[in-house]
Write a structure and sequence with these properties.
- This protein has a single domain, classed as Heat Shock Protein 90 (2-Layer Sandwich).
- Helices cover 36% and strands 29% of the residues.
- It has a 5-stranded antiparallel beta sheet, with helices on one face.
- The protein has helices spanning 23-34, 39-59, 88-92, 101-105, 113-120; strands at residues 7-14, 62-70, 73-81, 123-129, 133-141.
- With 143 residues, it is of the alpha+beta class.
- It is globular.
- The protein binds adenosine-5'-triphosphate and magnesium ion.
- Residues 51, 55-56, 58-60, 80, 82-85, 91, 96-99, 108-114, 134 line the site of adenosine-5'-triphosphate.
- The site of magnesium ion (MG) has 4 residues, from helix 2.
Length: 143
C-alpha cells in the first residue's frame, strides 16, 4: 500500500557551492520539526540530509534532494550527476575520503558522512554508476 504523503518537495543542490552547505538540511529539518515529529527523528533526518547535501556539493556537478514525508515514514532520495562511486564498500568505510585540500580546509573530509547516513537510516541504499552519478535512498521509520 502506498502511504498518504503529508509533504513532498525536491531541492536542487549545486556542486561546488560551499556557501550553501547546510541550507537545505536546515530547511527540511524545520519542516519536519513544524510537522511535530520527535527530536530524534528530526536529528536523524537532518544528519542524513546534511551529509547527502555535502557530498553532492563536494563531489558532484549538480544534484537533487527529494523528500517525501508520510505519517510513519520519511523517504529521502539524493541523486546527483557526477563521477559516481567506484567502490561503494570502500567509500562506506569510516575514514576513507577522497576529499581534496579545499574541502579539508573547510573541515570536511573525515570520511564519516556515508556511515553516518547509514546510522541515521532504517534503510539505506547506494546506487552509483562511474562517470554518471550517485543515488542515495534513505528511509527513516517513525516509531
Ligand atoms: N555523491 C558522491 N559522488 C562521488 N563520490 C562520492 C559521493 N559521496 C561520497 N563519495 C565518495 O565517498 C567518499 C566517502 O564519503 P563520506 O561522505 O563518507 O566521507 P567524506 O565526504 O570524504 O568526508 P565527511 O563526509 O566525513 O566530511 C568520499 O570521499 C568520496 O570519494
Ligand atoms: Mg561526506
Amino acid at each position: 500500500m502506498v502511504p498518504t504523503l503529508k509533504y513532498k518537495n525536491t531541492f536542487p543542490v549545486e556542486g561546488g557551492n560551499f556557501d550553501n552547505a547546510g541550507v537545505i538540511s536546515l530547511q527540511i529539518k524545520n519542516i519536519i520539526r513544524d510537522m511535530g515529529f520527535p527530536d530524534d527523528i528530526q536529528r536523524r533526518a537532518a544528519i542524513a540530509i546534511y551529509e547527502s547535501e555535502l557530498n553532492i556539493i563536494s563531489y558532484a556537478r549538480a544534484g537533487n534532494i527529494n523528500v517525501r514525508i508520510a505519517p510513519h515514514l520519511i523517504c529521502i532520495d539524493a541523486a546527483d550527476e557526477g563521477p559516481g562511486i567506484e567502490d561503494i564498500d570502500r567509500a562506506m568505510k569510516d575514514g576513507y575520503s577522497t576529499a581534496n585540500d579545499r574541502i579539508r580546509e573547510m573541515g570536511f573530509g573525515a570520511g564519516m558522512g556515508l556511515s553516518n547516513i547509514k546510522k541515521c537510516s532504517d534503510k539505506f541504499e547506494i546506487i552509483s554508476e562511474t562517470n554518471k552519478g550517485t543515488h542515495l535512498k534513505i528511509l527513516i521509520d517513525i516509531n
